[in-house]
Each structure stands twice: as structure tokens, then as C-alpha cells.
Amino acid sequence: RIVPDGRAVARSLLVSEAGQLKDWIAHNPDERAVASFIAGWVLLITSFVAICMKLAHWQILHVMINLYVLALAALTCALETKSSVVRDHLCLPLERQLAFLRIGAGRGLTYCATGLLALDTVHRGIGGSLRDDPAQMLGGVLMVTIGLFNLALGVSVRRKLKSLKSKMPQWTEVHARFAEASARAEQPIGLDAHVFTAFCEGYAVRFNRLEMQGVFLEIDESRDGVISLGDLSAWYHGHIGGHLKPFGRGRRGAIRSARAWLFRRTALVDVGVYGACACAALVPMLVAATVVSAAAYWSFMQVVINLYLLAFCVGMLILEVRCTETRRLAIYLLRYFSLLQYQEARGVLYFMVALALLSQPERWLWPAAYLLQLIGLLSVLIGYRSRRCVEALGRKLRTRDAVAGAFAAVAADGRRPLRHFGLRLLCQGHGVHLNFLFEQEALLNQLDADRDGTVAEDEFMLWIGPTEPAMLDAFGAYPLEESTAALERSGTHRSGGTDGVAGGGAAAATAAAQSGAGDGGGDNGVYGGCGGGAVEGGGACAGAGKGACDAYRRDEEAHLPGGKVSQVSVEIAAPEEPSTTIDIDTSGTSKCLP
């Protein structure tokens, strides 16, 4: 029996992370990240000092606003640091939900808003002058400067990346060229900045040192310092909000106008209706406040903050109004702000905007701020209930077949979209009780991805089934279970593979794939161990589950000189049954087949 020493483990982890951080600050070539980290750290310290000062003078409103500034400054430090623990447990999950943080322009706007909010709290502080708190003023100015730098860099990189994608040919040719560059540079896992710069120059698009840092910020999804084949494929095929793209194409459901949405039978129990009405009322009020700030106070900072608030109200109005006219634009916004699909996240944003409104000099904005606080509180409570219902359904329905069967059991003709009654019947059939009407409405709105007032089977599968956004692979393909089922249904014939051999049972293949290790032998490398099924072909994974397949995909070009698979032979070994051999002709393709 092995009993680990918790204190020793924590101490060694802390020493390792501190060493990584020290090495990153000393030797890291990413000047953009270093400058952003320093700005966030300075603002973090000054905001903490400002909170203590405001508590001494009992200014509760400014304390709450400074807490938001403190949280945003801490988020800046977390996003820009290279700590593996922070990256794996905070940054990567957050970037999956808020994809705009993977773009330089998105980070720049966030940093500018943080700096302006800090400057506004100083200006509305004890003496009403920016000179009363020079430390926080310095932190705010530094944050705004770094934000403008990230914004300019992100716009330039975005323009060049669009030009690069337009000059790229079909994916098979890009794949072969990437494999050739990887083999020539002896970088099997992925290309570093130097090699990837030369790779882009082959398409007549040149990035300088700073721009390449912005390129890695957008394309390097795993934040490991190299661009792998999976990262490049995800960017080539549309890596931001790919799971929502199908719901924004064409017309899927019935046409619903804004008037029909507003005057429907369940509108009074929909908290989104109240949020939309409040944002619609705030739009002209904020326009008037912007004009007053520019004409009467000559405050450029106040004008910019009012413009931020105005953009928030317009965006929330688009997201809350579920009609045909705003459907495509709302889905496009949700691709970059996936976290706002949850009612809880929108409630927290309402709270933050309400605090910003309460700090404004125009007192006629304060009633709207109190209303937004109430709407934010209701949104958090109702969103928490609907999220718990989704999680409970996910625990009850663990497979795609179970989800499809549960949907077909309550849907008319087994496939028609569900409304309130059908959704409540489905939940009650699996022990999830919706006691109140507002819970049904909130759950329907959360599951309704195409915003037509009904829940179709693919929308239900998106949230409840194993095809959640985080489980879609880089190619936008179906998960491993469905791909394996497609292999089993495709029939059998044998023709043999030529590019390589990977053998071994499921356990050996899993260990080899997860560790990224394999013993190569000549031109036809042999990976794995002995026994079990075998996979013949260069780009295939031995049947080892989704984790092993994903891990092996990152290294699929590591041992293949040509990088192209002509034929794949798969042996599927079933328990207590003879093994079945399936040969699949994949000429011209290079995807990793489970």
C-alpha cells in the first residue's frame, strides 16, 4: 500500500510551478504575454490596495466595483501565465467557453475595459480626481495601453490569417505539406514558431515576430508552444464554435417574429423577456448619457465606458430576443461567447453592468441599474435550476442510443421537436421533476440551440448526449462510439495496408497512445505490444478508446514519412467471438480512424 505525503506533493508541485514561471519570465520569447502579465499583476496589487482604502471609508459600491477589477486582473494574469496547472484547470476550459479570448482583438477589448473600469473607480473615488490614487491610475493606464496593443496586433493577425486561409488549397494538400515540413524539421509533435513562419511563407503570407505570437494565440489550442496537425485542421475547418454552426445555416423551424415571441403564452415566466425589455430601455438612455458626458463633462473615459455599456445592451438584446430576424446573428455571437448560453452567466453580467451604471454621475440611470440587479438575481437562480436539470438528465442518459430512445418515446412520430409538455414528460420519465413553469421555460430556452421555440433531437443530443461541444474532435466528426458503429456497419473485405503496422491489444494500445511512445522499426514502424486486434495503415489508431485516439492523433505524423494513408485494415476483436477484419479504402484522406 502506497500512502503519499500530501505536504510533500504540494511542496514539490509548488516548487515545480514556481520554477516554470521563473523560467518563462526569464526566457520566454512571447513579449506580448509577458507585457500583459506584468500589467495584470500591477493592477491586481493596486486594486487590492484600493479595496482596503475604500473599506476604510466605507464606500461599499466602489469596493464591489474594485472586486470586479481585481477578478479581471487576476484573470489576465492567469490567461497570460505559462503554469501548467492554471492552463489545464482554468485557461483551457475558459477559452472553450469564451472563444473570443483566443483572439488578440478579443483580449485587447477585455483588457481595455478592465483598465477603463479601474480608472473610473479612481475618478469616482474619495476626492473625485485621478491624482488621489496614483498607483491604481498607473495600473489602469498600463492596462489600457496593453489592451490597445493587443487590439492592434489581433486585428493585423486576423487579416493576415484570412489571407492565408484563402491562399491554401484543399486540406489534403495542406496536410501533406505540413507532414513534409514536420519531417524535415524533425518536429513530430508540431511546428514551432520558426518552422511555422516558413510554412506560412510558402503561401506568400509573412508574419513578423509579434504577429506570430498572435497566430499561436489563435491556432495553438492546447497552449503547448507548437502547432500540431490537429490545431491546424481545427483552424482550417473553422475552430470557433463549430458545434453551433449547423444551427445557424438555413431555416430549420417555423418562422417566429419578435412580436410573436414577446406576446406568446409563456412570456411572463421567461426571465429573458424582462432582460430584453430592460436592455431595450437602456439603449436610448445610454445614448443620451454618452452625449451628456461628451458635451457637459468633456470626459473621454466616460464616453468610452458608456459605449461599452451600450454595446453590452445591444448584444444582450440580440441574445435574449429569440426570433427569426436575430437568429443567425445571435448564434454567431454565441460561437464566440458560448458561456452566455447559460442563464447564470448572463445573470452575472447583468450584475456587473448594474454596478457600472450605479457609478455613473447621471442619477436617472440608477433605477435601471436596480432593475438589472433584480433581473441578474433571477437569472442566476433560474439558470442554476435549469443547469441542474441538464446535469441530471446527462447522468440518466449516458449513451447516444439512450438519448435518442428517450427523445423518440415522447416525441410525436418519434422525431418531431418537443415543446413544453413533451419536455416535461421526458424529464419526469427519468426522475427529473420540473415543479414550476419558469423552470420549464428556462430549460426549453437552454436546450433550444436554433432559437425557434422547440427542441429537436440534434439539439437535445448536443446538450444531453455524448456529443457535447467539448467532446467533438478537431475535424468536427462524430464521437468515437458513432464512428466505430459506422465501421462495424460498413461490411467486410480485405485488401491489405502498406504504410505501417500498429499492433497490440486494447490495453497496450491505450498505454502507447497516452504516453505518446512507440518503438519504430525501419520504414514500417511497429507500435504497441502483442495480442488483441491490429491496425494496418499509417494514420489509424488501435482500438483504445477516445482518449487514446485523441492522443495518438496528435502524433499520427510522427513516424510517417509520407503522411498519407492509402488503405486501412482494422481487426475488431469481440469478446468470446472470432475477430472480424474490415478493410477501408481511404485514398486521398488522412483522418485518424478509430
Description:
With 594 residues, this protein is mainly α. 61% of the residues lie in helices and 4% in strands. The protein folds into three domains: 16-239, no CATH class; 258-469, no CATH class; 480-589, no CATH class. It contains 23 helices and five strands. Strands 2-1-3-4-5 form a five-stranded mixed β-sheet, with no helix packed on it. Helix 2 packs antiparallel against helix 3 (60-80), helix 2 (31-56) runs antiparallel to helix 6 (134-167) and helix 5 packs antiparallel against helix 6. The longest helix is centred in the first third of the chain and has 34 residues, at 134-167. The protein is globular, with a radius of gyration of 27 Å.
Characteristics:
single chain; 594 residues; mainly alpha; 5-stranded mixed sheet; 23 helices; 5 strands; 61% helix; disordered C terminus; transmembrane helix; EF_Hand_1_Ca_BS
SS strand fraction: under 5%
Helicity range: 55-70%
Sheet having the most strands? 5 strands, mixed
Gap from first CA to last CA: 37 Å
| SSE-based structural type | mainly alpha
What's the count of strands?
5
Number of domains: 3
Order of helices and strands: HHHHHHHHHHHHHHHHHHHHHEHEEHEE
Shape assignment:
globular
Task: Going across the biggest sheet, name each strand in turn.
Answer: 2-1-3-4-5
Give the low-confidence spans.
467-571, 573-582, 585-594
Number of helices: 23
Please compute the radius of gyration using only Cα atoms.
27 Å
Mean pLDDT score: 77
